[in-house]
Amino acid sequence: MDTSNPANTMKAAWIAKFGGPEGLEVRTVPKPRPVADQVLVRVRASALNRADLLQRQGKYPAPAGFPQEIPGIEFAGEVAELGPEVRMWKPGQRVFGLIGGGAQADYLVTPERLLAEIPANLDWTEAAAIPEVFITAHDALWKQAALRPCERVLIHAVGSGVGLAAVQLVCVIQAVPYGTSRTADKLAAAKHLGLQEGIAVGENLDEIASAVEKWTDGKGINVLLDLAGGPYVKASQKAMALKGRMMLVGTVAGGSYVIDSRHVMGKRLQIIGTALRARSLEEKIAVTQSFAAEVVPLFASGVLRPNIDSTFKMSEITKAHERLESNQTVGKVVIEIG
Ligand SMILES: NC(=O)c1ccc[n+]([C@@H]2O[C@H](COP(=O)([O-])OP(=O)(O)OC[C@H]3O[C@@H](n4cnc5c(N)ncnc54)[C@H](OP(=O)(O)O)[C@@H]3O)[C@@H](O)[C@H]2O)c1
After folding, report:
1. Which terminal residue of the chain, N or C, has fewer Cβ atoms less than 10 Å from its own Cβ?
2. What is the pLDDT of residue 229?
């Protein structure tokens, strides 16, 4: 490819050096080309995730086939060009979705079935704040845990992006969301979205089971959405109801778990670990299609709303990483592109 021709290049966030945010740059790189069933998307916004921070630190490489130096696992943008086998999309349509990497750039290519159409009432920033957190919470709660009306759900790190999405999705099912956070202000934000009760936790995580006992009149939790990991998993087992489902999704508080057979076997609990990025293409298509069918219409009708903490330009990528790393965010950090 002739990269002296500007039509063949684009701007992209670039991990020049593993480590802190200062290792990030914006570079001019070759523009990708769509082949077969791929769509070329002109990216307009891409939200940041913990995965981007870990990739920048050299601890979480992008899956094979995706750019290793360009971060970004979700995007909103418009269809720019079509590979010869594309049947579902036309140039100019507004689309969003997940990708294994490379979303924080002017352009990306992705298979057509990994895209969903953005409802007309959402702007680029709002749309970019949706895919990762709502697909994760929808897949874990509605699909894998098969959440039912009136069930009681406990969400650890409820003020996180996934946590705030989960509160809304629990309310849509007419189940009851409870939550924990280390930061009281984040509980207030979650209550605004429908959180029934929450507890600001410190060192003593035994307080969680006592709070659940009080909130639920001793009935316990049917579905745990654990976005924290480590000691939170141990502390939650006592709070679970008979045949409860424990969805293990995040590890910000630790990656090793203590399992107590008195609770897990005695109450016949199910422990289900889940991750999106490492799934096969067909599995990713399945979650995207069920998100498009079941969740996107709820944004179009205004039942669901994205949660945005802050926005940055691509030239401010370093500041955006610092903001997410601060642990002070409530909702998504979105990078506006082009
Ligand atoms: N498995 C998957 O496919 C998948 C997909 C998306 C996200 N995730 C994971 O889900 C979690 C939430 O992601 P997100 O993007 O929504 O995150 P986020 O918006 O960045 O929020 C993470 C929250 O975790 C809490 N936290 C940080 N360190 C903690 C610690 N040591 N102990 C307890 N809480 C801590 C902080 O809230 P406090 O103020 O309460 O401390 C922080 O606001 C992350 O662990 C992420 O890696 C997994």
Report:
1. N
2. 97
Q: Is the CB of 186 under 6 A from ligand 1?
A: yes
Task: Give the pLDDT of residue 278.
Answer: 81
Measured distance CA(231)–CA(80) in Å, rounded:
46
Q: How far is the CA of 249 from the centre of ligand 1 (A)?
A: 9
Task: Give the fold, CATH level 3, of 133-273.
Answer: Quinone Oxidoreductase; Chain A, domain 1 (3.90.180)
Q: Ligand 1 within 6 A of 16 CB?
A: no
Ligand 1 probe mutation, 74, 130, 195, 327, most atoms within 8 A of CB = 327
Give the whole-angstrom CA distance, residue 338 versus residue 327. Answer: 27
User: Model-level pTM?
Assistant: 0.97
What is residue 120's predicted lDDT score, i.e. its pLDDT? 98
Would you say the CB of residue 279 lies under 6 angstroms from ligand 1?
Answer: no
144 Cβ closer than 6 Å to some ligand 1 atom: no
Using 70 as the pLDDT threshold, list the residues of the chain that sit under it.
Answer: none
Write down the CATH number for the domain with range 6-130+280-336.
3.90.180.10
Q: What is the pLDDT of residue 16?
A: 97
E strands in the chain: 9-15, 24-30, 38-47, 74-82, 94-98, 107-111, 116-117, 152-156, 176-181, 197-200, 221-226, 240-248, 270-273, 308-313, 332-336
Check residue 117 and give its pLDDT: 98
Q: Which residue has the tokens 């502390």?
A: 235
